[in-house]
Amino acid sequence: MIKYIVMDIDGTLLNSKNEISEKTKEILISFQKNGGKLILASGRSYQRLLPIASQLCMNRYGGFLIEVDGIGFYNIETEKREILKEMNLLEVQSLIQYLMSLDCEVQVCEENAIYAYIPERLIPIKEKIRKERNLDKDFPWTSGPWDFIFDMRKAYSSIYYFEDCSEIKGKIRKIQIMDYETHIQEVFQSLNKTFKNQFEFFRTSYRQIEILPFGYSKGKTLKHIMKLNHIHRNEILSFGDGENDVSLFEQTEKSYAMGQAKEYVKQHASHITKSNNEDGIYYALKKEGF
User: Fold this and answer.
1) Which end of the chain is more exposed for a tag (fewer CB within 10 A), N or C?
2) CA distance 121 to 182
3) Which domain holds residue 276?
4) Which Pfam families does the UniProt record give (predicted)?
5) Which residues of the chain fall below pLDDT 70?
């Protein structure tokens, strides 16, 4: 019997308009009314997950938020947060320098701040976009998962631009790289060869790589939550669309890859549903009898 549903956010729960469809919202709230609980698993911090949890009435029914791809989690019922792992500059300095040598846009993410390195070759591309969109001079220069200009201020209150690793301060939650798909593929292969067994590398979109401490993932943190709450793998249903969601699939007996997911992700899921723009979660849950 399914007692928990764990799901990724971007590309899974949210559609391309960054919204939860009414069908999906209604069926997930109904699942909770009947005694089930939800677990949201994302690269976002728990503060950015709380408004989404509120839309699903999780503040009423409880549940968990797996944040920053698994470096920590938040118990909605007890309002307690547990950080399992952070990185310091000494651990990642050689990695960041290597990424800079590969001419990548590097974003080093802390709790409330992001440090961005933007290579010279991307400046003309970003300048053109800024001009076309008539963006204010204070608008950030950072890229996002789908665009070379993206406002990271919604996620991080402070954005700094660095040229040298020594400028980075504080505890590091994750590192992310944004670039063209072809370059991302080359960098991904190079990272897995050069830093094997030192960090975890996930392609979370066709033009983004996220980097975590070695041995940490959404799935590992889900396993930790399952152990603490005596949850069996056949009691959880998982949903995801990215490579960083495969670790969730590995912890659950039944899993669904979204219809738009890459073939690698689909191969690791036990089932495939419709895309996030076609109410994939809703249709899978109807199929499961909810």
Assistant:
1) N
2) 15
3) 4-85+217-287
4) Hydrolase_3
5) none
